[in-house]
Amino acid sequence: MKEKEETTYEVPIGPIHPALKEPFLIKFKLDGEEIVDAEARPGMNHRGIEFMGMHRNPMKVIPLSERICGICSIVHQHMFTTATEHALGIEPTNRARYIRTIMCELERIHSHILWAGVAAHEIGFDTHLHFTWKIREKVMDLLEYIAGNRVNYSMWTFGGVRRDITSDMYPKVFETLKYYEDLYEKLEDIFLDDPSIKMRTQDVGVLTKEDALALCGVGPTVRASGVKKDVRIDQPYAAYGDLDLDYVIPSRYGFENKGDVFSKTLVRLKELLQSIEIIKTCVEQMPEGEMTSEPKKAALFNKLEKRSGEGIGRIEAPRGEAIHYVRLVEGRSDIDCWKIRASTYNNLATYRPMFMGEQIADIPIIAACIDPCIGCMDRAEIIDVDSGEVETYTKEELHELSVKKTERIKNRGIK
Questions:
Q1: Pairing with 292, which of 33, 228, 343, 385 sits 20 to 30 Å away (CA)?
Q2: Mind listing the pLDDT tens digit for each residue in 4-22?
Q3: Residue 380: what pLDDT?
Q4: What is the per-residue pLDDT across 66-89, written as a single tens digit (0 to 9) for each?
């Protein structure tokens, strides 16, 4: 009997591909149209921001931190500021805690609407993309109204915030929230009730609860699988401890905690409503008082240079839990250590079980369903092209290599 012909072959998607928002590589092994293995390989978008931050004083790192990601601008600035506050023993004012919460939830609304548009584009619904990107302008206008910028808001400082949300701004805030409340039914109709979208998202890219827990996934990616994990509830920060929040999982709304693309879409849409309610509550309960507990810059700089300590900033970003670690050493004006772990760093591991057994046509929407942000999480590694082995270098070895490279450039007469 003639042996069956081998039909398994490898297809790389990326690092530059229309289905990917940022440069990274996914290597697929296919049997016909079916995916039988998948391996995500980041490392093409490393910008060295941690290294740059460790050569600046903490005040100068605040604007650098929010440039880690354009959509999670507030997230990274919040985490860095919180981690440094923990290291210095600084507490933000009550009013600042509420303003921080409002800004974080406005960014969550922006991020989830933007994701919905990208997801629609990945399955060929560009009309939905244009609609969602049109309506996200409203929240960007509000962010600009409060902070002065549509992206990179420069709101945070140690001990509080740099800009207030005053009572005369409240009507604009409520007008924006009402705008999204009125549109919400249409969003559900588009993304949850449309038969064509259901066919492309239901039972596609399934992440079981067991895999979600074993792979330490975070955010909507695992809440769609029924995992009750949300830093705002588990370890409250800012004003979240004053609020009555519950986990957004599909079973709360009469759906199965299936963990497919449809479930992830459902979670993000329901979180829009949750964010609206959080902002309303924060505005209504806004405490009086100062914007910052450290109004004197000279005293703040003195603390930064004369205290040693380490701190953690841990928050629930739109994509899930993210962490910044900061270490300060007395007598040094710059940061001794700054490490960032963004949500995508965890969620990239969930790709493999979601891709297994799926079709080539589903690759774009499954890749998009974790809302990957490669610029947030990317790391670099050096691979020997002959052996394929990953090489590890110490700080001293990297410094020595940098010196040698500089000498080579000088010897070639390059300025």
A1: 343
A2: 566 788 999 988 888 787 8
A3: 60
A4: 988 888 889 999 999 999 999 999
- Statement: residue 110 has pLDDT above 90: yes
Extract the tokens encoding 216.
């330490």
* Cβ-Cβ contacts under 8 Å for 415 (sequence gap 6 or more): none
Residue with more model confidence, 46 or 367: 367
Q: Please give the share of the chain, as a percent, with pLDDT higher than 90.
A: 70
Q: Quote the CA–CA distance of 391 and 371 in Å, as a whole number.
A: 30
C-alpha–C-alpha distance, residues 29 and 345, integer Å: 23
- Report the relative pairing of strands 25-31 and 34-41 from DSSP bridges: antiparallel
Residue 140 CA to residue 8 CA, distance in Å, equals 47
- pLDDT, mean of residues 140-169: 94
Q: Is residue 41 within 8 Å of residue 27, measured between CB atoms?
A: yes
Q: What percent of the chain has pLDDT over 70?
A: 94
Q: Where are the domains of the chain?
A: 49-377
In this structure, are residues 78 and 313 in contact, taking their beta carbons and an 8 Å threshold?
A: yes
As a whole number of angstroms, the distance between CA 367 and CA 221 comes to 12
Compute the radius of gyration of the chain from its Cα atoms. Answer: 23
Distance between CA 28 and CA 8 in Å, rounded?
Answer: 10
* Distance of alpha carbon 281 from alpha carbon 289, whole angstroms: 18
Q: What pLDDT score was predicted for residue 248?
A: 98
Three-state secondary structure call for residue 382: strand
- The structure's pTM equals 0.89
Three-class secondary structure assignment of 209-273: HHHHHHCCCCCHHHHCCCCCCCHHHHCCCCCHHHCCCCCCCHHHHCCCCCCCHHHHHHHHHHHHH
Q: Phi and psi of 414, rounded to 5°?
A: -90, 125
Q: What is the CATH number of domain 49-377?
A: 1.10.645.10
Residue 361 bridge partners (DSSP): none
